[in-house]
Structures are given as C-alpha cells and as structure tokens.
Amino acid sequence: MTKFSDLGLAEILLRALDREGYETPTSIQAQAIPYLMQGRDLLGIAQTGTGKTAAFALPILERLAAEPRRPAPFTARALVLAPTRELAAQIADSFRAYGQFMRPSVGVIVGGVSHRPQNDMLARGLDVLVATPGRLLDHIASGRMRLASTEVLVLDEADHMLDLGFIVPIRQIVAKLPKKRQTLLFSATMPKEIAGLAQDMLNNPAQVSVTPVATTAERVDQHVFFVDGGAKRDLLIELMNDADISRAIVFTRTKRGADRVAQHLDAAGVGAEAIHGNKSQSQRIRALDSFRKGRTRVLVATDIAARGIDVDGVSHVVNYELPETPEAYVHRIGRTARAGASGRAISLCENGERPLLRQIEKLTRQSLPVTDRRSADQRHDDAQPARRVPRGGAPKAHAHAGARNASKHPRREGHHSDGHHPAGPRPARPGNGQKRRAFGGGNRAPQG
Ligand code: AMP
C-alpha cells in the first residue's frame, strides 16, 4: 500500500498531512501524485469526495516549496479554475491546510463580491489563485491579472463548468497562459465537449480514474461501538443474537483473525464460516454456497477475500476491526444495501483504531453515531472523552439513527468528537445533492 512518505513529498507537507489526520493516500492521490511530481499533464476522472483536491494541491505546493520565488504583482504561479464560489473557497482552504507550515499566498477570486479587496490582493501577486472563470476574466480584461508567467493550471469539475456555460470563458483564459505549463483537468464524467477541451489543453496527459462508490454508502445505516479490544468478541456475539441480522459479513484485518472470530461465533452457537486467502478454492466455494443458501448466517472475511463475494440480501456488515484505508470501509459496507435495498453497517472501534475512524469520517463526510461500551478505565484514559450515549440509551444494533441523518447533524448528541480532528468531518457540501456527497475509491463497490 502506498504511503504519503513514498510519494516523495517534502517533509513540510508530510507534517501538515499528519496534522490533518491523513494517514494513507486515497486512490486518486496514490495514482496522480507521482505523475504530477514528474511534471506531467493529467486527465483525472474523479468526483468530489475522492480526495482529488489534495491530489493536485500537494504537487503544486511541492513545486512552490522546491522553487520558492516571490510572485510578481498581478501574477499567480498556479491557477485553479473552479465552477462555484463554494468550491473555490474549499479548494483555497485545502491549499492553506496542506501548506500550513510553508504559508504560501493563496487567494480566491469569485463573482458577487466587491472588486476592491480582490484588486489589492492581485496587486501583491499570489502563489496560488483559485478562481471562478467570469470574475477572473474581468480582472484580466482590466489588466489586473496577467497569466503569462503562470506555471500550473488546474481545471476542477470540468463537467460542472460545462453545465454552467463556462467553456468559452475557460478557452479565453487558457489562451492567455504560456504554452509551456503543467495542466491538470478533473472531471467526474467525460462528455464530448470536455474530451475536446482536454485534447486541446493537455499535452500527452497521464490518465487516472477512480470510480465513485458513493450511492451505496448513502443507503447504509451506519453505527459505531467504542469498545475495549478484549470485549469485542462478546459484543459481537451479543450483536449477532439480534434476530434482525439475517445474513452478515464480519470483516477482520487478518486471515488468522478471521479464523478466530469464526470459531468463536461457532462456539457460541452462531453459525459462521471464514473465507480468506489461505483457504482452498473448494473450501471457499463451499463456504460461499452455504452462506448464499442461508445455511450459514455469518461469513467472516478479510478485505481481499471479500472482493469475490457476490451475494444479495446481506442485511449487516460488521467491521470487527476497522480497515487500514478509509476506502476499504466504503467497499466493505457496499456489501450490504445492494440492488437498491437498505442495509446496516456496525463498526467495533477500540481506542487504537480511532484515527482510522476519523479518516473514514473525513473521507465520507459523515459523522457516525456512536455508542460507548468501553470500560470506565478506558474512558478515564481518554484525555478528551467522546460524547456518549448513556448505557441505558444505547441504540440496539437494529434501531440506530442512520448516517444519512447523522451527516445533517454532524455534532449532535451521541456523535463522537474527540478533539483531535481539527476540521472535523465536513458536512455534505450544499447544493447538487448526491454528487456533492459522493466519494469514491479505486474499485467499484458492487451495487447489485
Ligand atoms: P475532496 O474530494 O478533495 O473534496 O476530499 C474529500 C474529503 O476527504 C475532504 O474532507 C478531505 O479533507 C478528505 N481527504 C482527502 N484526502 C484524504 C486522505 N488521504 N485521508 C483522509 N481524508 C482525506
């Protein structure tokens, strides 16, 4: 698995990522950053929620750190074009967050606000300018912005720009840029106008794409139990005694863990089988077959073994251990809620796994409802304790609030907030419903 430190990023950026709580690059980051660090142009098929902002912001900041230079007045070293004011502001915030130890000058130019402060800002020159096309063209026309020395151009959400009628303004802006530059274009879809724009703008681009897995996760009701590591097994049995769980997949991180959990469930009278890479093909087929036919209620699987599972009617996914990457979480919970059905996902999270939980919440932009089952000692150890649902008020596995509601009230009672999460999971971005809440990963979660 790629680590941020494998990508060759400067220490000053790695430190910021650490501060932001990012542990592993998302798929688009792992794919795109190496090309961008070589100076290649890039065509990225990815939508918001995949981590694409960091995928382009980090290499740009890396360039600024490697060749620090004061930008001349009325110029910007990197230009990012975005379709909306909100997105422009978020992108600028991301640059500031990832650049927090190098303090690049980052400015935003959008319409609907007065020109004066923007004029003053442009007069100072910028490392990074994030702009919507219309207002930027105004500034270019009045001579307050010159693009002849801009080194990098990013076009974000190009298909959304097309919907908003920005293709002509974009072409006008691109005409002002030097021929020798690095150009990146991101789009969730590739209508022919965007393909044409890419063809004209990009020079031998590397192509990367991540397929969204969003809609699955939006249909899944998700819940987290904070629990002591040693108490996970008993909690699992307790949960499995819920008659609502008709067919469940329990995920573990290791093969040995899968065997142990399956044995423990079996011993407690819950029919379970493990599948993982150490099992023979015939054992796997047999286990899957009895799961599919309902003879075994619980399948215990590792992430890799689960890739081949194609079973409808999985009512619950249980994360006995949280996965190392947040995207794996999305793939796991996508095993339920298939073919338009709803499903439930329960995660058992011990103290040491809370950074993993934070990553999942960041990536999916949800704050998951939590029940705290940890011992008093463990809670006491917690420097800044999570808000708790009182024991008596603990939701049953089948009666919890869905994550959809949770994302609308990210900080309401019962949601965890541990004080180490500087920005907190952002609530869904406004407007444009599903697309805005979408997130994705490298492989498509099966959707039935
Ligand atoms: P984006 O698609 O760029 O809008 O990013 C979606 C969300 O994922 C944002 O809240 C980011 O802060 C977060 N994010 C991006 N990359 C990572 C990562 N490697 N680990 C954890 N969270 C991330």
UniProtKB/TrEMBL annotation:
In the record, the note on similarity to other proteins reads: Belongs to the DEAD box helicase family.
> Which organism does this record belong to?
Methylocystis echinoides
Taxonomic path: Bacteria, Pseudomonadati, Pseudomonadota, Alphaproteobacteria, Hyphomicrobiales
Q: Which GO terms describe its molecular function?
A: ATP binding; hydrolase activity; nucleic acid binding; RNA helicase activity
Motif (Q motif) positions are: 2-30
What are the entry keywords? ATP-binding, Cytoplasm, Helicase, Hydrolase, Nucleotide-binding
Q: Where is the composition biased (Gly residues)?
A: 439-448
From the Swiss-Prot or TrEMBL record, give the protein name.
DEAD-box ATP-dependent RNA helicase RhpA
Please tell me which top-level EC class this enzyme sits in. hydrolase
Catalytic activity, as annotated: ATP + H2O = ADP + phosphate + H(+)
Question: Could you tell me which residue ranges the DEAD-box RNA helicase Q domain spans?
Answer: 2-30
